[in-house]
Amino acid sequence: MTKEEILEKSRNENQNKDYADLEAQSKGALVAYYAGFVFCSICAVLELIFKRTVNAGVWVILFGMLSTAFLVKYIRLQKKHELFVFLAYLFVFCFNVVLFLLQLMGKIN
Q1: How far apart are CA 49 and CA 59, in angstroms?
Q2: What local confidence, expressed as pLDDT, does residue 17 receive?
Q3: What is the pLDDT of residues 23-72, one digit of tens each?
Q4: What does the radius of gyration of the chain's CA atoms come to, in whole angstroms?
């Protein structure tokens, strides 16, 4: 087998996926999750300091994104850990949706 045949076979097996690119995207997503949490935390603390309230809307967005990401990971990998993390994030997401709706209706601050 020649070098070109080996490379062609590898490309066909990997369906032209660049694993370095996939790894970079994965690492970028992980950093984005942490950054989103930090940004939401900063917004919540500032709002608590200046307005004496916390808007649940930022947490709805963050935990909606996280629960979606872990649902996709669970569907693709079928790992129980991903399912449990998805369910935990989904619970927090639903809790914040309820808080957000109550805030919008003026029931709570």
Answers
A1: 17
A2: 66
A3: 888 889 889 989 999 999 999 999 999 999 888 999 999 999 999 999 99
A4: 21
The structure tokens 């995207």 sit at 25
Residue whose structure tokens are 């709706």: 101
pTM (2 d.p.): 0.74
Tokens 């709570």 sit on residue: 108
Tokens linked to 22: 């996939």
Q: Collect all residues with Cβ–Cβ distance below 8 Å to 59 and sequence separation of at least 6.
A: 40, 44, 92, 96, 99, 100
List helix spans (H) across 52-79.
57-77
Residue that is written with structure tokens 């949490």 in the block: 37
